[in-house]
Each structure stands twice: as structure tokens, then as C-alpha cells.
Amino acid sequence: MITVALAKGRLAQESAALLKECGVDADVVFSDTRKLVLESADGQYAFFLVKPSDVPTYVEYGIADIGIAGKDTLMEEDKDLYEMLDLKFEQCKLCVAGYPEMKKQLTNSHLRVATKYVNTAKKLFASRGEDIEIISLHGSIELAPVTGLSDVIFDIVQTGSTLKANGLVVLEEVYDISARLVVNKVSLKTKADVLLPLIEKMRKKV
Amino acid sequence: MKRRSYYRLPAGVQDLLPDECYNLNLIEKKLEEKFMLAGCSRVQSAALEYYDTYAEIKNKIPQKKMFKLTDGDGSLLVLRPDMTLAVARMAATSPLALPAKLCYFSNVWDYAGAGSYTIREIYQAGVEFLGRSGAFSDAQAIAFAIECLQAIGLKDFIVDVGHAGFFKGILQECDLDGDAVEEVRLLVNAKDAPGAQALLEKYGAPRRAADALAALPTLFGGEEVLSRAEKYAGSPAAREALDRLKRVYALLKDFGLEKYVSFDLGTVKDLSYYSGVVFTGLTRSIGSPILSGGRYDNLADDFGRHVPAVGFAMGLKRILIALERQGALRPAAPRADVVIFSEEGAETKAYQAYLELTAAGRRVDLAAGDAKEAETLKNAGMVVLKATKKGVEKI
């Protein structure tokens, strides 16, 4: 049996649709159920619907053989995985955004960055040799510069309409984000008979 | 009873209780026997070493991965972060006659606790074959890794083989600096072919090398990988690596071990000291490698002696987890099979009986009192004896 971790929500639906196109009996993902482990009717696959940031964890431990998660999640969680395919859906950008003209504070020489991608932001600014202050938030990140909590935000931008409505602009597009297929490092070898043909089929579809 | 927060253990370390220890001990005995029959001598290296030993060498251990302490004179010490480096240091700095085969059962400590099953105190059993180079020595090490996993009773495992020289050979053509090499290595290791390709374009790597590096993440599977890799073996180092792998595989096939062997030329381990074949033991029962090793011919140079060598280490905790999932562990044997209860004044008689029985190989517990629990113990299959001033008798 192959175990698959999918990120709850739209990403899971799109992932299941792709898996179906590749011959995986993934109908069960669309069913309305409270079950936590969804087994395919043919008994060959089991799906776990988890919080997006937990997908890499399930795959790293090998509890799930494969998983589909956004590149943003993968960078933030930084797990030891094979990242084998760019599935090209759920595309967006991970950006630094803020007011076009930044008002620097005299009393803080560090740039204050509000984000839910704390690890990624730390690494990004460290790689540029910049000292920053991270302000960790869990939602409505745009509110931070508007209220003066931070100078800029580091977040996903899809359409940019929330930014625009609040007078903010993208200052820098840093990373291209999309859904990725990740595979446990042991499963790829020990279940190669099933996984390799599946990955090949997926590669051709995207 | 008051439980204080400091009675807990720090993150990433564990006590082993009797049932787990019993099973660990069974594995250790089997491995020790195996090691001995293969001509290995057991060594033990000091747990505390100087920080510089691991930080001032060519193939350094990252600072963040080491547990650091300060010595009385202000020197920085570390808890041994790697057994292969420790054994290489021992071999280079002691009057050890070479060739030699050394084995160990030891902890290493990893401050960062890499990967899943985040254990920071890692108990390993391993061997290092020192002073021999060549394909036969490589094949012997891989065959021995397979034998060890068989001896432990692990089912359903493979040993995935690669060669550090293949990646290094291709990189030589690219003329990248150290940071860029590390960026490429991370992408190749994550089998992120598009990512690797984009990065190499950015760095302007030559076409042939860029194609080869982009193909690396796909070069894994059965022996056909070796022929698929042909067209990427442009540089002399990559050519040599591929020829060596073919030779090693031919030997393993002759040994009848091919069903345990798979290949992955895209495994680029983060321990940069590997110079030749590298291999990793994998089983379906656990999502992380259980064995890791390879050839490291130039490692001891750092310590002042050239010692070609190949070796591997097994993570015994992960092996125990895998064996448990395969249903191969059992609870510890009861601590005794005979209990002697002694009346007051009959202690010497009881002790005499204990000495005689243990000399005959029985496991014996001694207790004071009037054998009130005798029935329960007998029901549990134990022999219960009672020592009185007159003598020792069964009840």
C-alpha cells in the first residue's frame, strides 16, 4: 500500500484530481467523511488529509510515502525529503511587501519583518547579511505594516488585491511558489516498483 | 511523591528500560560475533575531544551539530560527533599496525538532531576496514553490511550504493565555489532536478556538466542505472567512479548478493569525507536509513597519516524500531527463574544455595521472608525455594 499525505483544502482537491488522471483511485478524497485515513476502494492507496505544514512531517517520517505541498511550506519546514516534481498548480509568489516609501524608525536600526514564514525569512535575510527583527504572525499579515507593527511583510502574494486595498506594494518577488510532489527518501527505493511509474506519469501530466 | 521538572530528560535523549535493553543486547551480541568472525578488533574512543579536532580539519563537522563544553584551561571540547572521524584519528595517531579492521559500539552526539526520529544521542555499531583500497575491499564492506543486517534478523532491506566521485567528477568541470557546490549538492540530494538545472544555468556551468547534474537525481534504481550513467561520465573522475561501481557490482553479483543491491548516483552525502563508494541501508519498516557508510581514503590525512579505508555504521535505535514493526522483538526474559526465600538465621544457607545454582547457570533471586508470594511466583513458572536452619527445600 502507498500512503499519501495531502494538504487539506483546495490543494488536496487539485492533487487528487491529478492523481486520478495518473490512474490512482483517489475518489475517496472527494467524499464527505469524518474519517482521518481514507483508503482507496481498490485498497492500494491510503490518503491522510492534514494541515499543509504537516505534510512534510508525515513524509519525512515515512508515515506517508509521498505528499503534495506548496513550495512555501517545504521551504519553511525544511525537512529531509526528495522533492521530485513541480506540479505547477497553486502558483503564487513569496514576496517582501510594504509601503512604497518606507518610514524608518530612528530607534530601531533593524528592519521589522512580519511573517508566518519565520524560518524562511530568517534564512533569506541572513544570506544577504541583513539584521532583521522577525515578528511572527499567523494570519492577516498585511495588517502589520498598516498598524505600524512592522516595516514590511514577507508573505504569499496571489492577486495582490489585499495589498492594493491597503496602500501596500510588492517590494520584491523573492520565490516562485507552486505545489510540489515530495517523496520519503526510503520509500522511493523500497517501493520503487509502484512509485517510479507513478512519478513518471505525473511528470508527463504537468 | 513530588515530581520535579528536572527529573525529565533533555530533548532528544532517552533511557532504555529492560525490555528495550534486552533486545538491544541481543542485537549487540549477534553483531559482536559477526564482527569477531570477520577479524575485527573492538575499540572505544573517548567521548570528549577537542573542538578543533572536528572544526579545524578539511572535512569539518558543522559547528551547530556539536555539543560543546569548556575545559578547565578554557579549551573548547565537544562530545564526539562522528565515529568514523574518531576512528580515523585513533588510527592515524596511534601505533596501530595496518591493515586493520576495527569495530565499535558507541554513542555519537548531534546537537542539532538531524532528520526525523530526532535523537541527539545516537548509539551506533560500526566497522572500519583500514589500510586497504580497491574494488574487492569495497565489495567486502557492502557484503558485510548485508551480512550484519541479516544476522540481526532484519527482513526486507536493501543496500543502496553510489559513488562520491561521480558527483565530484562532474562538479570539477563546472568551476563553482564552495557555497555554490553546497547549493547544488542540496538540490541534487533532494532529487530536485528542475531546481538543480535552474541553478546551474544561473552559474553558467558548461552544458555537458549541467546536463549530467540535472540527470543525477534520476540516476537511481537497479543495475541499469550504471549503463544509463555512461553518457554522463565525461570527466576522468566520473569515469573512474562508474568503472569502480561496475566492478563492485560484478563482485557482489558473484557473491550472490545482487538482490540486496540498488544504485543511486544522486546520493550526495553531507559528510564530505567520502571519496569512493557510498552506501545506505534501507528497509520499508522505517522511513530513515538504518545503515550508512562508504570509502574515505583521504580522511586520516588530516590527522597526519594516509590510511585508505572503508566502513559503515548502523543506527541501533532505528534498527530496533524497524524490528519492532516487523514483529521481531520480544519482552525481556523474567529476571530470575529461581527465588530463594530465607528465614531469619538461614541467610548463609540461602546464599550457599544461590552460589551453587548460579554456578549451574540458573538465574536466582534472594529474598527475606516467609514465602507469602510463593503461589504467585510458582504460577508465573518460577521455582520457589525456602531456606530454613535445617536446609533448603522446594515449596
CATH class (first level) name of the largest domain in chain B:
Alpha Beta
Instruction: Supply the CATH class of the largest domain in chain A.
Output: Alpha Beta
Report the biggest beta sheet of chain B as strand number plus sense, adding barrel if it closes.
9 strands, mixed
CATH architecture identity of the largest domain in chain B: 2-Layer Sandwich
Strand content of chain A: 25-35%
Fraction of residues in helix of chain A? 25-40%
Beta fraction of the residues of chain B?
15-25%
Please list the strands of the largest sheet of chain B in the order they lie side by side: 1-5-6-12-11-10-7-9-8
Query: What string, H for helix and E for strand, traces the elements of chain B in order?
Result: HEEHEEHEEHEHHHHEHHEEEEHEHEHEE
In N-to-C order, the SSE pattern of chain A is EHEEHEHEEEHEHEHEEHH
CATH topology of the largest domain in chain A: D-Maltodextrin-Binding Protein, domain 2
Number of strand elements of chain B: 16
Count of helical stretches of chain A: 8
Keywords, separated by commas or semicolons:
heterodimer; A: about 210 residues; D-Maltodextrin-Binding Protein, domain 2; 2 domains; 8 helices; about 30% helix; elongated; B: about 400 residues; alpha+beta; 13 helices
Quickly describe the structure:
The complex is a heterodimer of chains A (206) and B (395). Chain A is of the alpha/beta class and 206 residues long. Chain A has helices at 10-21, 55-60, 71-77, 118-127, 143-147, 161-165, 187-190, 192-205; strands at 2-7, 37-39, 45-50, 66-70, 82-86, 92-98, 111-115, 132-136, 152-157, 169-177, 179-183.
